[in-house]
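User: Teach me something about this protein's shape.
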Amino acid sequence: MSDLFLGLIGYSVLAFISMIIFAVVLLFIVLHCLGRAAMFRKAGETPWAAWVPFYSDYIMCKVTMKHGYYFLFGYIPFVGWIANIVYAVETALSFGQGYVFAALYFFFPWICDMILGFGQAEYMGTRDPEEQLERIFKK
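Assistant: First, the predicted structure itself:
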């Protein structure tokens, strides 16, 4: 009888931990989408697109790199790492940030989307990276 009771407690604790993990992951997804919706608003796109999984990546690549289909490179094995680094750099440059912010964006996109969307970063458009750097450092 006591083994059954201890087993039920163990499963209850496991279920509680699973619900906490699920809530934290859901919170990160919501923060990511809210930040991205604000970024889309700054770029002149429709904010609801941030809530649609693959379409959001398409719009983000269209806003930052002129061609939306570039998001597909992020899903190719081994190429995806390089594509996501380029994606982070182009996103940071399109919103007037530098390479340090791009590194942060690569590792913490849900936080950086909130910073770019709700912060004072302005959308600079899809320009040549050298031209964007000149605009950043002239300020």
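Now, about its shape. The first helix runs from residue 2 to 43. The two ends are 73 Å apart (CA to CA). If you'd like, I can walk through any region in more detail.
User: That's plenty for now, thanks!
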